[in-house]
């Protein structure tokens, strides 16, 4: 069984926001909601680096752990989805999420936030019909045998999506090719190639 | 953890194999593209340990950019996990222990000691204790407190019980109703609580009598009733708990209830913890208040229900107050006649203390 993961190679991301646009287009999300974002650190400095972030479909998802309605669930592919019929818009998942993934269409008085929306790994969500699913959660490309559109359309293939094993293999290959002692995650000369900061296949 | 663990040998083998495969595959014409030194030379130098340390800290430098319109937080929400652990590992279980423990203590106390009966038969003469306005505010605040406590408990613990019990459809409307009731009635509770506290403040200034009252455990230690004025030490304690913890709970609740004022995610995390701890504590103590006011002691409930208490009850529980107001005691029949005549239940002998 696949364990779906995203990985963004910060060495390759050129901050084109193609992933953001692709996501918005594929899922037709509400105005004001942007499931994927690109963060740039040290903008304008020599050390500038960008990375694309959305829901990372955590193994031990904090949103699932704190949700008062228990509306989250994990698919067999390790994708974290939620049921908008149960969501009450309390905002707890936003408090807990390490990646700022949950977003709310409103921010009104008396805690009226509307139903939470987040990246579904292009796997839709629980609904009666395909139309309803698209309306509520956006595309279900996984059901069509396709990967998330953000990663598919990434022009530099910085953003990878797919089975953790495959993603890790691709990244490992890049590391070897680059010749950085530690996969370019730091310039610490002490760091060795066998202590990669990120290894998607390892649990915990 | 990952850093300290070297790769298992099999991984190193895989790596080596990959490297070999690459060397074989990339024949000389393609070599230029794959030259490690070349790519290393053109690669961004910037991803330093400091960069990741900064990301991990949750701090944001002046050159942090985020392409999402409403998002000015950070790359990694460093406090999210702290909030989760505090809420799920500490607040949730200990809240349950506090409230469950209070229930158990009260139940055991009731079974063993039982109701506190009046020491003498009722005299049938009544004293005004709570005027209509205080009673109305008290019962409104009390009803709101119960609704807020139940909906709040449902938000914290409901999913462990009711979802599997009733199914998604019922659970969905239940939890949604809880949230709406909690968010809309909360501010109303806050306003009325402040009014109630202001109205009964004059009875609740602590004094020397209260010290003696507490030394005797409110009558639990030793024989007989300790001295008490209009309000005894226990009532004053409950007042000041509401005036401190209660107002903190109201204030933190407002922070959570109005996300439209742009307070940060971190602020709301702390507001949530403070709100939960305070509210669970108050709920536990409120159980004690409810017990004493209803089945715990004879004659107490009628004070808040009708406004009047029996002379015997006043003598038992608030002897100093009784000495002040005993000349105003009215026979029950007279009271009833007056109430029927005026028809609106307005108090005739007004002496709240």
| Second CATH tier, the architecture of the domain at 129-342 in chain B | Up-down Bundle
Give the strand line-up of the largest sheet of chain A.
1-6
Percent in strands of chain A: 5-15%
Strand content of chain B: under 5%
Range of helix content of chain B:
55-70%
The helical percent of chain A reads 10-25%
Count every helix of chain A, treating DSSP H or I runs of 4 or more residues as helices: 6
Q: Sum up the overall morphology of chain A in one term.
A: globular
Largest β sheet strand count, sense and barrel closure of chain A: 2 strands, antiparallel
Tally of DSSP helical segments of chain B: 14
In CATH terms, the superfamily of the domain at 129-342 in chain B is Transmembrane di-heme cytochromes, Chain C
Physical arrangement of strands within the biggest beta sheet of chain B: 3-2-4
**Shape assignment of chain B:** elongated
Number of strands of chain B: 4
Largest sheet of chain B: 3 strands, antiparallel
């Amino acid at each position: 069984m696949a364990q779906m993961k995203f990985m963004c190679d910060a060495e390759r991301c050129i901050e084109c926001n193609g992933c953001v646009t692709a996501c918005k287009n594929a899922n037709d999300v509400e105005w004001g909601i942007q499931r994927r974002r690109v963060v740039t650190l040290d903008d304008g400095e020599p050390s500038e680096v960008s990375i694309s972030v959305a829901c990372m479909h955590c193994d031990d998802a904090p949103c699932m752990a704190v949700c008062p309605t228990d509306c989250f669930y994990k698919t067999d592919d390790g994708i974290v989805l939620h049921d908008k019929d149960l969501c009450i818009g309390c905002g707890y998942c936003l408090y807990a999420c390490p990646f700022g993934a949950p977003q709310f269409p409103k921010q009104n008085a008396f805690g009226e936030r509307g139903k939470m929306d987040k990246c579904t790994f292009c796997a839709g969500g629980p609904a009666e019909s395909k139309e309803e699913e698209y309306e509520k959660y956006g595309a279900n490309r996984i059901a069509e045998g396709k990967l998330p559109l953000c990663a598919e359309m990434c022009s530099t293939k910085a953003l990878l999506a797919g089975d953790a094993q495959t993603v890790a293999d691709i990244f490992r290959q890049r590391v070897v090719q680059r010749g950085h002692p530690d996969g370019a995650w730091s310039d610490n000369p002490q760091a060795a190639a066998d202590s990669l900061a990120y290894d998607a296949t390892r649990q915990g | 953890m990952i850093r300290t663990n070297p790769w298992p040998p099999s991984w190193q083998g895989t790596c080596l194999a990959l490297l070999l495969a690459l060397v074989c595959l990339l024949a000389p014409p393609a070599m230029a593209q794959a030259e490690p030194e070349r790519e290393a030379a053109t690669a961004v130098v910037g991803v330093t340990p400091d960069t990741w340390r900064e990301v991990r800290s949750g701090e944001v430098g002046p050159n942090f950019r985020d392409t999402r319109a409403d998002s000015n937080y950070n790359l990694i929400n460093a406090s999210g996990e702290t909030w989760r652990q505090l809420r799920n590992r500490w607040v949730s279980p200990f809240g349950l222990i506090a409230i469950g423990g209070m229930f158990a203590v009260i139940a055991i106390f009731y079974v063993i000691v039982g109701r506190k009966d009046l020491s003498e038969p009722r005299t049938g003469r009544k004293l005004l204790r709570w005027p209509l306005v205080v009673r109305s505010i008290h019962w409104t605040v009390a009803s709101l407190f119960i609704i807020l406590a139940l909906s709040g408990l449902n938000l914290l613990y409901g999913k462990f019980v009711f979802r599997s019990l009733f199914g998604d459809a019922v659970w969905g409307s239940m939890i949604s109703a809880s949230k709406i009731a909690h968010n809309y009635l909360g501010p109303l509770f806050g306003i009325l609580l402040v009014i109630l506290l202001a109205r009964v403040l004059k009875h609740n200034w602590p004094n020397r009598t209260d010290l003696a009252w507490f030394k005797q455990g409110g009558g639990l230690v030793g024989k007989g009733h300790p001295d008490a004025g209009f309000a005894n030490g226990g009532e004053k304690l409950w007042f000041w708990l509401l005036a401190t913890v209660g107002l903190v709970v109201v204030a933190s609740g407002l922070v959570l209830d109005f996300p439209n004022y742009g307070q940060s995610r971190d602020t709301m995390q702390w507001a949530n913890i403070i709100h939960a701890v305070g509210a669970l504590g108050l709920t536990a103590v409120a159980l004690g208040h409810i017990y004493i006011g209803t089945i715990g002691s004879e004659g107490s409930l009628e004070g808040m229900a009708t406004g009047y208490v029996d002379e015997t009850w006043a003598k038992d529980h608030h002897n100093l107050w009784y000495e002040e107001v005993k000349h105003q005691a009215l026979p029950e029949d007279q009271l009833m006649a007056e109430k029927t005549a005026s028809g609106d239940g307005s108090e005739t002998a007004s002496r709240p203390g």
